[in-house]
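Summary for the steering committee. One of the milestones for this cycle was to obtain a three-dimensional model of the protein with GMT bound, which we needed before selecting residues for the alanine scan. The sequence and ligand used are listed below.
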Amino acid sequence: MRIGIVCYPTFGGSGVLATELGKALADKGHQVHFITYQQPVRLSEFNANIFYHEVRVPTYPLFDYPPYETALSSTMVDVIVNNNIDLLHVHYAIPHASAAYMAKMILGKQGKRIPVITTLHGTDITLVGRDKTFEPVVTFSINESDAITAVSNNLRDETYKHFRIDKNIEVIQNFVDVKRFNKKPIDAFRKVIAPNGEKILLHASNFRKLKRVEDVVHIFAKVLKKVPSKLLLVGDGPERPVAESLCRELGICDDTRFVGKQEQIEEILAVSDLFLLTSDYESFGLAALEAMAAGVPVISTNAGGLPEINVDGKTGFLSNVGDIENMSMHAIELLSNPEMLKQFKANAFAHAQHFDIDRVVPMYEELYSRFLN
Ligand code: GMT
């Protein structure tokens, strides 16, 4: 098949998932054309079946707001016509679903039918999409998609709850390449971070308010009082200065490292003992699944789709949003009990297999095949 994939090229989960899907499809012999405004972060290696088409938005003094969506639709039309694309798979509804609708209409006038599949990822529905400014366009373009998928049952339910969707939303849960995350820890790396054999706690996110990174810092401060440990914070975003300042206030800077955006997250996960995800909401929580694939148990909130991946008392623990006491209590319990930690690590790894790339990618292929003549 010749598949066009439209996504955000950034570190966010939707872009990561779309890129990993494209790479997996290319490995299976499909031709994949990424259409986005920058080379996706996880698209680093060469693959003869992968093509990347950059969306360029011309500047003009009149444009206070460069018309990205118009440029995106036009690029879609160009790529589809010139590469004989069979279908378009857009990740994150805003503005990709409406741009795809426009491209589909333009191509329809030229006698070319292009099926559009929209995958909903989370904030496109739960936060941004619900905003009155976007809602009519989001509802319309989702309904006009030939197929709609959501990355968790929770997100499907949220979508039906908040939008008037008259079509079936299929759930295809996110996936992880377990082989890639099943790495041996690099001893030298572990020694640099935890020279005295301290436990390593990890958080990775885009540091948006919704991630409640301050809760991560508070939890770690409590853990540190009981368990010799270090905290690694991966990623960057608006709340990073707030978290940094909280570390200073709590006097835990020597045991905390902000390492910024990292491409090789699997190497950091390989040396980690526990992953913390304190979000107000996660449609799925791909970062938590990647941790589990690396054999790292997860202490998370029970928000959104997180209970669909993190099994309470088995692969980690679930707590109510903001319940710092409960999350630190569980973290201390796990980190101070070697047998329990070993068992949870094994459980996390075993459970991640249910979401392995080899199980999930064929579901997308099956979906695509329904739209081919
Ligand atoms: O986590 C983010 O804020 C980034 C966001 C995105 O769209 O890139 O992530 C969403 O999609 C991911 C991949 O499907 C999910 O794993 C995340 O849970 C989801 N984020 C939220 O729902 C807040």
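Key point for the committee: The pocket of GMT is lined by residues 12-15, 17, 92, 121-123, 151, 174, 206, 208, 210, 281-286 (CB under 6 Å).
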